[in-house]
Amino acid sequence: MDVFQTTITAAELLYEFINSYAEYSHDAKSLAHRFDWDIRVLRSASTYFEQKTASNIGRLSTADKELLQASVAYFGELMAHISRKRNKIQAKGWLGTQWNRALWIHYKKELKDLEAELFEWTSRFDLRLVAVPPELGAVIQLDDPEANSAPRLAMKRRIKRYLAQPDSEKAKISEELYIPDPGNAVKFTSSIASQRMTATYNSKTSIVEYKPYAPSLLSDQEKLKETTDTVKELAGALSVVDPTLTALLPCSGYFHSADPNNPRFALIYSPPYDIAQSNPPTLKDLLNAKDRKGNRRTAAHPLDQRLNLARRLASAVYFYHSVGWVHKTIRSDNILMLEPTREDPLSLFPYTLGSSYLVNFASARADSGNTDLSLEERENEWFLNVYRHPARQGANISARFTMAHDAYSLGVVLLEIGTWRPLERSETEIKGKTPEEVRKVLLGLVDGTAIQMGSKYKELVKWCLELEDSNLGMSIYAEQVLERLESLVM
């Protein structure tokens, strides 16, 4: 169809252009592979709709019209960008140029900048595809081996396959992850005992996070089994996560402590590099950080790092939802800020923000699963409730959790990032208020984000905080949150 064909033609020309100088650049070679995959996806979608139109006397059925609209929602921005970029390259006279090493050296810097921009856009396409409608997934044959050209998509497929396996197969994976003797296998390196500590496991730097549960479950075998199965499934699903692609850490093992005074599970995460901190800080810690004189630290990091932090978190939520799970406890104290081991103090906080990772899956579950209050945080402290959607507070805590509730919680975190100010500093305005009154207070603070982050950032935070208690479509989330953040980061 025309909506795809114009882009396919432009993409093919770009592919030939990129591939023509791939021998001079490893990045260009990788990008050419990604473009080849993107073109195949667009061709498959276009062919599908052409065949459907031809078989229905030149018309699409209502269902196929809806699918076409969904397709354009996922592909539209990429298609527009490719066409614009093709026109720009054509205007420079680069298309059709016979490249050689001399030309490559002459235009190297300009071409590398172009590579980075195009790679960013193909990565965005890759992220969009993880939430593609099932019908469209079948159309473009996402199970094809070539799908490894889209890393996030391949990772989603691995998680989906795990979740779809029969219990017997999941049990085998759980057995491999289970640590029967954590006392000998896990060596803690944190100086302070807490819910989240660093350790060495399998000779690698790891992070151990505890998941406590109600002691009453120890005498309720049925409930304990349900809780155990949830933890096992979560550990298995997280074991295939790639931390270089999304703000989630892979799980390398788990264990169980049946201490009657403090029963709990523990998940072990594997960071992508050795980390500098024995007790890694959270985003909340950075927001509250003080200097040697006890004064609150002034943010000294570049603005683009803060915008990238916001985008990473939004992408993690998007990916997590795409595999059918809800997190339920998105807060700034559940976002780890990891820094690699470095000697240069200017490469550490407060001058840089490090890498962010969403953790604490104590209450996480499949979107289709039942709410389990044995792992649900039932504390009624205002500084926890402030992150929860008004429909999920107080007497409503057992109400069904939706993806919109996670998006609301993300909005509260984005508010803190945008003002670089922890919500504890607004205690007098928030504490003791009703859930809807708290929401009004937060919306009143949103204007403060425009000063540091701009009006577009302010509007997306406002959009998150105004979400009502309803299911949220992935394409809407992508449009209202991801695309706005991506446009700011570019």
From TrEMBL:
Top-level taxonomic group: Eukaryota
GO molecular function list: ATP binding; protein kinase activity
Gene3D superfamilies: Transferase(Phosphotransferase) domain 1
Protein kinase domain ranges (all copies): 186-489
Protein name (record): Protein kinase domain-containing protein
Organism: Gomphillus americanus
InterPro entries: DUF7580 (IPR056002), Kinase-like_dom_sf (IPR011009), Prot_kinase_dom (IPR000719)
